[in-house]
Amino acid sequence: MQTVSIYAPVVDKLALVEEQLHELCQTDIADLDPLLDYALRSGGKRVRPALTLLASEFYEDDQKRSQIMAAAVELLHLATLIHDDTVDNAGMRRGKPTINKLYGNHVAVLLGDYLFATSATFVCDTGVIRVIRRFSETIMELASGQLIEFFTTFDPSKARRLYDERIYRKTASLFCTSAESGAVLSGAPEHQVQALRRYGYNVGMAFQIVDDLLDIQGDASEIGKPVGNDLLQGVLTLPTIMLMERYPEDNPIDRLFTSITDGGPDVDHLLQKSLDMINGSGIVPDCFAVIRDYCSEAAAALEELPDCPPRRSLLEMVDYIRERSR
Amino acid sequence: MQTVSIYAPVVDKLALVEEQLHELCQTDIADLDPLLDYALRSGGKRVRPALTLLASEFYEDDQKRSQIMAAAVELLHLATLIHDDTVDNAGMRRGKPTINKLYGNHVAVLLGDYLFATSATFVCDTGVIRVIRRFSETIMELASGQLIEFFTTFDPSKARRLYDERIYRKTASLFCTSAESGAVLSGAPEHQVQALRRYGYNVGMAFQIVDDLLDIQGDASEIGKPVGNDLLQGVLTLPTIMLMERYPEDNPIDRLFTSITDGGPDVDHLLQKSLDMINGSGIVPDCFAVIRDYCSEAAAALEELPDCPPRRSLLEMVDYIRERSR
Q1: Which of A119, A160, A241, B323 has the highest count of CB atoms within 10 angstroms of its CB?
Q2: In this predicted structure, what is the pLDDT of residue B63?
Q3: Has residue A4 been placed in a domain?
Q4: Is residue A268 included in any domain, yes or no?
Q5: Cα separation of B63 and B13, whole Å?
Q6: Which InterPro entries does the record match to this protein (chains A, B) (predicted)?
Q7: What percent of chain B is modeled with pLDDT above 70?
Q8: Quick check: B116 and A111 CB within 8 A?
Q9: Which of A113, A144, A150 is opposite residue B116, by nearest beta carbon?
Q10: Bridge partners, B97 (sequence order)
Q11: What is the DSSP secondary structure assignment for residue B281, as one 8-state letter?
């Protein structure tokens, strides 16, 4: 499935967002421009700005403001990727060397800060305090989601207890805000704003669980990082949590973690065993069932909105996100 | 000189700011609270929030908003310190281990992000788009100032050319914004807002040059980092730039930099020679002359404002900043 048909109602506006992002690469600091250019040409799918623009299509209050917002949510997303790669010491992202790999952690931290601040400055141009505040809160949620991830590494019971909170903060939060802000800026009535927010929440939760599955299933060249990367980092995701819950006495993850933290020799073997056990059990279909539930909730939220091309696109987006891992 | 008398007109409000900062340490993420507590009890002088509060004292529009702003500028300052220490790999700050030292770079980057975002969320509670936008721009300036510093390390001609721009962005920018925002939120007329902004700019520039001097003169226990630390990092400051300009053929800095970058054995010796040469020449008094000029401009800006205790405090603050390095 391609994003082309999904984005059809907003394709011209997305092109303007793209232009807006590239205008950022002309600063008055010559050394900064190539870095920005590299960071902004990341080759992402622009899912979040598309969500903002589609959410703003139901009313036509002031399309210019939704466009600014769309650029801001993408910038914010790119800033978080730069910091995430830096703290994870990741070398590749979408088949290209990361900023931290190419320019070092020093530049990566500061460039991320610069992009966070640029995104927040963009949002001010909407002139609407409600979305400006929500945007800053979202940055708090993203950072604290990553912190929760860090606090719960190698700790199965904590990881389980904080799982929903963590994936809401680190992923669903920005989907929520993207949809909600588009709706607010378009002048939608409050019940529709809330419906689009609910849509964003559910789509975002599904998106993260699909990501979790890709990590244990995908091939390395496709996802751009080694299979089982989360487990190697001690990050427990839905499929690995399910494995531990179902086989409390006989799962290889406890031993894998001990091997990783103690520098044991069996890491590769235990990782492969964990992945095989997840893929060979009923866990993957059960994760799909959870994803399906979130997707159904997202689709149900859209019933508050009139039937029209942007609503059909948002419905297609649900399918697109669900099918990413198939 | 103590800050006590300077802060007298706003001492109660500063205490409320302090309370507000500490309220932040009760989040719904148990693991986060001790980190926040450690970061916020940094023992700083709270110069920037005092500036915001003093600048807001000339008019009495809505003191609650200036107080929120004061907490926000301090939070922002603390966030930048955390990221600065992380990218500089600094182990100590004000006599205490840094966050990156205690908890690792991973936590330090994310905690800094969280505090940046918290400060920006605070500012939204003022409800005034002008100060909210200025605040985000300031974060851009702080990050780009640090990037300029990085781009100009070990490069004397670039460091000279970009010196004013760099110290404006990395330091004076937040002083400007602290003063300007206090004035805007108090309802001051525009010419007084601009006067307080000019005051903040000049005080901030002076503050940074004093910092540059402390780095080459202070004793390590007082400034909490090794003497000559800037030079060891390849950062060229006003006194070292002056040394290179005055003794283009016969200064030890070129050789010091070669030694540092090539891992040569003479680093300690060449560093000491550079520091001795600066301290033994007329460079220190010449730096003081530059500081004095900025301080005079700051004092002159205050002439736009009525004579009253907060104005006298702002004048004393100029003296306090100038005298830090004596």
Answers
A1: A119
A2: 79
A3: no
A4: yes
A5: 9
A6: Isoprenoid_synthase_dom_sf (IPR008949), Polyprenyl_synt (IPR000092), Polyprenyl_synt_CS (IPR033749)
A7: 96
A8: no
A9: A113
A10: B92
A11: S
Q: How far is A11 from chain B (nearest CA, A)?
A: 29
Task: Give the closest residue to A187 by CA, choosing from A133, A130, A123, A139.
Answer: A130
Nearest to B136 among A120, A146, A151 (CB): A120
B-interface mutation test, from A121, A138, A163, most B Cβ less than 10 A away? A121
- Inter-chain residue contact A147 with B29, CB threshold 8 Å: yes
In a domain, B76, yes or no: yes
| Per-residue pLDDT tens over the stretch A11-60 | 999 999 999 999 988 898 999 999 999 999 877 889 999 999 999 999 97
> Domain for residue A203, yes or no?
yes
ipTM: 0.95
Tens digits of per-residue pLDDT, B132-141? Answer: 999 999 999 9
Domain of residue A295: give its range: 10-323
CATH of the domain at A195: 1.10.600.10
Segment B39-92, tens digit of pLDDT? 998 778 899 999 999 999 999 766 799 999 999 999 999 999 999 999 999 998
The residue-averaged pLDDT of B181-210 equals 97
- Nearest by CB to residue B113, choosing from A29, A116, A150, is A116
- Number of structural domains in chain B: 1
Q: Which residues of A touch B233 (CB under 8 A)?
A: none
Phi and psi torsions of A93, nearest 5°? -145, 125
The fraction of chain A above a pLDDT of 90, given in percent, is 81
Helices B129-152/B99-124 angle, 10° precision: 150
Q: A122: closest CA among B177, B132, B324?
A: B132
